[in-house]
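Hey, I was hoping to borrow your eyes for a little while. There's a protein on my desk that I can't quite get my head around. The fold is given in discrete form, as structure tokens running alongside the sequence. I'd be grateful if you could look everything over and explain what you see. Here's the protein in full, and shout if anything looks odd to you:
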Amino acid sequence: MTGKFGLLRELGLLVLLGCLWGSSYTFIKIGIETIPPVTLIAARTAIAGGILMAIIIWRGLRLPKDMELWKRFAIQAMLNSVLPFTLIAWAEHYIDAGLAVILNSLTPVFTFLLTLLITRHETLSGRKLFGVMIGLVGTVVMIGIQALNGLGNVVLAQLAVILATVFYAGAAIFGKNFKGIDSMIPAAASLICGAVILIPLSAIVDRPWELAPSTRSIMALLGLSVFSTALAFTIYFRLVHTLGSLGTTAQAYVRVPVGVAIGVVFLGEELHATTMIGLVCILAGVIAMTLPPQAFRLKRRAA
């Protein structure tokens, strides 16, 4: 990334990534109508991994043979696809796609906390502490009222999405281990590892050969695999190195409004008052966590 135009290009890719991942929640919601979560995600990783492998071969690249590197790819697969993808797909049986994308926007908060506790290359400023607290308050607002009525499937589904968000945060940090490698290599390799893990599990749990998925679910699966996974992962691994782990998670700025809007328009979902309050709190937290200090100084000078 060099100069002003290089930064603009990376920010453009960040916006595109937010749109691709924002639409994935609706694809998942439609896909699980007739395809069980484990099978949907197994197919998602297999199709996306196959597409990226074909592009890698076409570009004349090769996957590495280093087994230590493949162990890292497998860990990345668990953090970035196997666990979070499956948790979110299961959760969307019980909650709206819009709520899932809002809860998942906590990724920058957990990325900062994990960075602080594990790598410790971030300093805990008052602004970032505010971001953590207000983001967590927003989450409690959305979950708290239902939790008072007992720990039912809806609350468990919300907690599953939050857990998936923690895994995404870990993936954003761990993804820095692939510095110096063409971004398409870790994207393809981690998806292939994910497919290897999930396909046998799908065969045991769902017996996919007995399923009769609808055309609507199949089309959603293809959109999820091609755009929200193959293309998105390639962009993601590039941005982890050009914008950093926290900077990359800032695609939540775009992902949240896109995901919520798609759910409202195409799935007829409704936004409740507590959801809107939680959304505002979480976005405020994400902004406080990820905007560079210079932006706040410029705003104060302008005022």
User: Anything to note?
Assistant: Confidence is low (pLDDT under 50) at residues 147-151. Residues 106 and 221 are 25 Å apart (CA to CA). The radius of gyration is 19 Å.
